[in-house]
TrEMBL record:
Residues 132-184, 258-325 form the PAS domain. Residues 6-123 form the Response regulatory domain. PROSITE patterns: HIS_KIN, PAC, PAS, RESPONSE_REGULATORY. It comes from Methanosarcina acetivorans (strain ATCC 35395 / DSM 2834 / JCM 12185 / C2A). This is Sensory transduction histidine kinase. One of its GO terms (biological process) is signal transduction. It comes from the Archaea. Residues 205-257, 334-384 form the PAC domain. Residues 241-268 form a coiled coil. SMART domains: HATPase_c, PAC, PAS, REC.
Amino acid sequence: MEKNVQILLFEDNPGDANLIEELLEDFADFPFELKSVETLNEGLVLLKEHQFDVILSDLRLPDSDGIDTFLEINKRNSRTPIIILTGMNDEKIGIEAVKKGAQDYLVKGQADGRLLKRSIRYSIERKKAEEKVQSLANIVESSNDGIVTESLDGIIVSWNKGAEQIYGYSAEEILGKHMSILTPPLLVGETKELVERIKKGEKIYHYETSMLRKDGMEIKVSITLSPVFGGSENLTAISIIARDITKRKKAEEELLKSEERVQSYLQNFRGIGTQLDENFIPIFLHGAVAELTGYTKEVFLSGKLHWREIVEPEDLTELLKKVQKMKATPNAFVKHEYRIRKKDGEIRWIHEIIQNISEENKELYQGFVYDITERKKAEEALVAMKESRIKEIHHRIKNNLQVISSLLDLQAEKFEDPTIRQAFRESQNRVISMALIHEELYESGEIGTLNFAAYMQKLVENIFECYNIGDHKAHLHLEIEEKTFLDMDTAVPLGIIVNELFSNSLKHAFPERDEGIVKIRLCREENWECKSNSVENTGVENPGRDNTRGDNKSINLILTISDNGVGMPETVDMESPCTLGLQLVTILVDQLDGEIELKRDSGTEFIIKIAVKQKQ
């Protein structure tokens, strides 16, 4: 604990209050500030005005008594750890308070300074740990992957929505059952072996195997298994993360069969063998010359037609360069693929191998060519299939995310509490920000890079619509570096960052005003006054899409999101933010190996710098 620990004490007995202060002064090994109140209402007022790290509370106060004292404090300050101070006769109430959420309880007259110090330290750290666990639990529950925990004797003790989608069992149906319910009979031995490896402390990543669904269907999954340790570092359970790869494996099998058919065809196709003199005129030819070229072998042997004359001009230059290099090196050989034009005008792809076999003063070359036209067609078809499959994946992911967004919207309508509804709306916006990325990739035809400028236009337009900005005279000034193309690993977290900070400005920056300005700028660091798509209005216009491409290169990008609103409270610390949105921002900036700076000079300004590889 480096900063002063802010402690609030509820105690109406001056003697007991003085004793607590003396114990802290004598035994606390951390700096602290202690404030005391004698009544519940006085303390609740103080809690509205100040933030405390820990609360010490007697249960018997002039205006409150018993467990109700704790419940009232906890209801108003659920994120602050509470330690109950009880008399010897109230110990049972202290235990009840711990069951209802208090971090600890101490019996007056029995607690010494060391115990008090330790209880304060542990309570603060335990509360932080609980919040982290809850955050991780939320992430686990929203994952599309199946995340399961099994005890060391194979009993399923946790089961998320992703597991329900993959295996078909609901949590109510599966919890308490043995993992063998998901294991095909022939793989029971394999499963036991994996478990034994985990018990020895090993981690297993992306292990591909088969599992059983509720309907009896056998599916292919990629699983990652990890040991789960308890507080004493003893192995207590096994974590299993599963991803359904059934469709992918089927596609791979089809591709493999296709490649095998192509290879079989090539191996059975008749090629041409030849030996050439120093001028590359064939001395003899054998094989399917007429079938491959449309000319008889006598035409080539007589020198009336040179092989290079049937090579397509666009391919000839490169072939001649390789041949010249090969001629200068004894025993060297050239492998090359190029196109020839048959006598009837048909274009065929061939694969050629030529080797320098010169001996003493005699230049000789031998070679072999065979038709690979069908293989080339198959390769082109495979590439087109891959691109089509990836495009379809983007489309399906976008559709699934939109379904999740709709479900969140429907769920939000069921809650009357505006805070809960707002939390659902914010989660919905995060999902939409990711869905828009897959939509942009699907519509643009690109499979690996995203036109971030076009995506940003859609994203801010959606956020405007979500917060009904048409009725709110908020203006957006948007400047985006033209031809900014980012990969998925950069675009997804950067899009969520924009969603969080832009939404935050629209929700909180202008509470007392009808008008305000929010500015979003994305530029290269060396080009601060950037050539950009610039929009300033109460909505967003799409400036169109530029699909210009080039080579990868690393650039530094600066994302600035600012507003001229009321400003960010001084209590907000970006190193340890207290809201989920800002926590997400800091986590994602770290994920991008970036830097974030918060300025409060005039309104609020976030400056984020990242280095990315970009296609222009």
